[in-house]
Write a structure and sequence with these properties.
single chain; alpha/beta; Beta-Lactamase; Rossmann fold; globular
């Protein structure tokens, strides 16, 4: 057993999401969003490097020593997988580990709306899960892919950096590809995927113009594509994708996106105040003909209004979902205000000045 495994077991027992190991400091774990120090000695840079290298593949060590950064995944059978990032800082080496549960929860267990399960059965198109870092996008995507794996008879390809949730083939054939290990880049893997007879392609993150363009092409050519973007609403997601491209390409991309988009889910995680747990608020935009027309005509500012009238399709605005959690007594008024899109709606709920004074 590797020395570092003891920290992972502690992390798992405490229900922590992240482990921080930094030279010159005590270990720290993140529990329900808060950082808490572990009662352990201050980590020496050389000792920490030795501990980390014990679990690091040789080619990743070489890459880290050349660049000062590296990502990979580490698994403890029967416990969990961990997404690892090593980086150099002033006092030496540092590492952050994110726990990825070995058991994939269903959309129902995660408390997601019923329409989320239906996305797994779409025949084609682009489905985007968006939100800030650490908002549970990978968990939501994994639950949808798992549903497809159980209920369809298709070929699923996942492209990630690194591989997070591992799906064993059930009714579907599932192939996992890791950027840097099995393929050079997201775009190279996507280009290859179009020749690998896939039905469903999951792209861990749409990071650059080429990857976004290939994902749109895959969706337009009859594949079902899932991916993530770091945005906070459906309308902003559309704008972000369009704005990546040069101005002269934007009208064509807008049309391609309008044809291919099927759903955008924007989510935010909250710390519950009634029990020791976290909960998620979701914005759900289903690409009805009306929504696609707004995308095509560059009227994304009208998408929220279209979503308000589309509740029968399973649509909901993020702020409505946040208000619902607040009314249940699950989340605090201050956190609801901080994470809402329309602050004015939540301003009367908070007693003092907001924590983020720039939002006044």
């Amino acid at each position: 057993m590797a020395k570092i495994d003891a920290f992972f077991k502690l992390m798992h027992e405490q229900g922590a999401s992240d482990l921080h190991l930094v030279a010159g400091q005590q270990p720290v774990i993140r529990i329900r969003g808060d950082m808490e120090r572990v009662k352990f000695k201050v980590l020496d840079s050389d000792d920490l490097r030795s501990m980390l290298y014990e679990i690091t593949p040789e080619e990743k060590i070489k890459s880290f020593e050349e660049t000062g950064d590296v990502d990979f995944a580490y698994e403890i059978p029967g416990l969990a997988r961990y997404r690892a990032n090593f980086f150099m800082q002033k006092n030496g080496i540092a590492a952050v580990f994110r726990e990825i549960p070995s058991i994939i929860m269903t959309p129902e267990q995660l408390g997601l709306p019923p329409v989320i399960s239906k996305l797994a059965m779409l025949p084609r198109g682009l489905v985007l899960v968006t939100g800030p870092t650490g908002s549970g996008k990978s968990t939501t995507l994994a639950s949808i892919i798992d549903k497809a794996n159980q209920q369809r008879k298709d070929h699923i390809i996942t492209i990630e950096d690194p591989i997070e949730f591992v799906h064993s083939s059930q009714n579907c054939i599932v192939n996992h590809r890791e950027v840097g290990t099995h393929t050079r880049s997201f775009s190279a893997a996507l280009r290859g995927a179009l020749r690998e007879d896939p039905d469903i392609i999951m792209v861990g993150e749409m990071r650059d113009l080429e990857t976004i363009g290939l994902a749109l092409e895959a969706a337009a050519t009859g594949h079902l594509v899932f991916s993530t973007v770091h945005t906070t609403s459906a309308a902003k997601t559309v704008d972000r994708i369009i704005e990546v491209f040069p101005a002269h390409q934007q009208p064509q991309i807008r049309s391609t996106l309008a044809d291919g988009i099927r759903a955008i889910i924007a989510q935010v995680l909250f710390k519950r105040i009634d029990i020791k747990a976290r909960c998620v608020a979701l914005e759900v935009c289903i690409a009805t003909p009306a929504v696609r027309n707004l995308v095509r005509e560059s009227k994304t500012y009208q998408i929220p209004s279209s979503m308000q009238t589309g509740k029968k399709y399973g649509m909901q605005l993020l702020d409505d979902a946040i208000m619902d959690l607040y009314n249940k007594g699950w989340i605090s008024a201050d956190e609801a205000y901080i994470k809402a899109n329309e602050k004015a709606r939540f301003r009367p709920l908070i007693k003092g000045p907001p924590a983020d004074f720039t939002e006044v």
